[in-house]
Amino acid sequence: MRGKTIDIVRLFYELNRQELFTYALALTRSREAAEDVVQNVFRNVLNRPRLPGDLRPYVFRAIRNAAVDEHRAQARIAALESIFDLPGHRNNGHDPAVAQELDALLQQLNEQERECIVLKTYNGLTFAEIGDVCGVSMNTAASWYRRGIEKLRALMKEDV
Amino acid sequence: MDNLDDRLQKVPLAKPSAAHDAAMRRVFAEAPLHRPRFWSANVALWQTAAACCACLAFGYLLHAYVEPPPAASLPTSTVYVIPPDPALRGIFDASARQNIPAFDPGRVRVRVLSANDAPTLEREI
Asked: What CATH number is associated with residue A60?
């Protein structure tokens, strides 16, 4: 019975491995911290007596809380790391110009706008789910996302 | 908007490291196979229950053997039986008004006898 629970969590992790890491990285801005956050969250999930009813929003919320704690705890981040695969990373192999440009633009958004864009674009969450994860209403989440996208578009026009 | 979405979607994302994948495999491998038990203490549940029963029995016996503290003695009340004499009743009333302890209205009653010596009226001062 318990083995089945572990299999469910493992399957969930394998299906969302990249999304969860991207979200944690967007919040912590450190690959090492993001990996720690994801590992700790799953360790906690597996130690729970029961699985939460809906694992997806629960795990995203847990990652958010852990990332916020991690971010507060470590004032040691000298260079903020990107969610994109930039040349300095270990897994490159493509033209990084676009990624660098988008990363620079994303950095000009505030945390809420950036978080909403990551959750919507890379994790495929609905606005209702984003609101649930961030602890705000669906409308607030939607407005953060729209404002972020509009800012990005304006910044791209400036660049051109 | 679509163009921007496309651009965002097409950018390759940073991937978790091989060390992270290995750590996650360990997390799943080391996951507790048994659900945390309701009773996780080292002492057996029956022993704890027996100890509780013994404590209850001891408490009951202690309660039964210890004498209850003596109840505070209630002040005795005094009843004055007087003939139907208005002057005499006036003395009692005046004494009560002056707070004389012997005529404390909380403890003293006055019973006025009727003319044929049968008690007909009882009243508090």
From this structure: 1.10.1740
What CATH number is given to the structural domain containing A91?
A: 1.10.10.10
Whole-prediction pTM: 0.63
Number of domains comprising chain A: 2
b (16+ CB within 10 A) / e for B64-87: eeeeeeeeeeeeeeeeeeeeeeee
Closest-CA residue of B relative to A123 is B9
Please count the other Cβ atoms lying within 10 Å of the Cβ belonging to residue B107: 14
Is the pLDDT at B122 greater than 70? The verdict is no
Using an 8 Å CB-CB cutoff, list chain A residues near B39: none
For residue A10, list chain B residues with Cβ-Cβ distance below 8 A: 28
Q: Is A34 helix (H, G, I), strand (E, B) or coil?
A: helix
Across the A:B interface, residue pairs with CB atoms under 8 Å apart total 95
Among B15, B17, B35, beta carbon nearest to A18: B15
What are the pLDDT digits (tens) for B31-68?
887 665 666 667 778 888 999 999 999 999 888 888 77
Q: Which domain holds residue A116?
A: 85-159
Of A49, A73, A97, which one is at a domain's C-terminal end? A73
Report chain B residues touching chain A, CB-CB < 8 A. 1, 4-5, 7-17, 19-20, 23-24, 27-28, 31-36
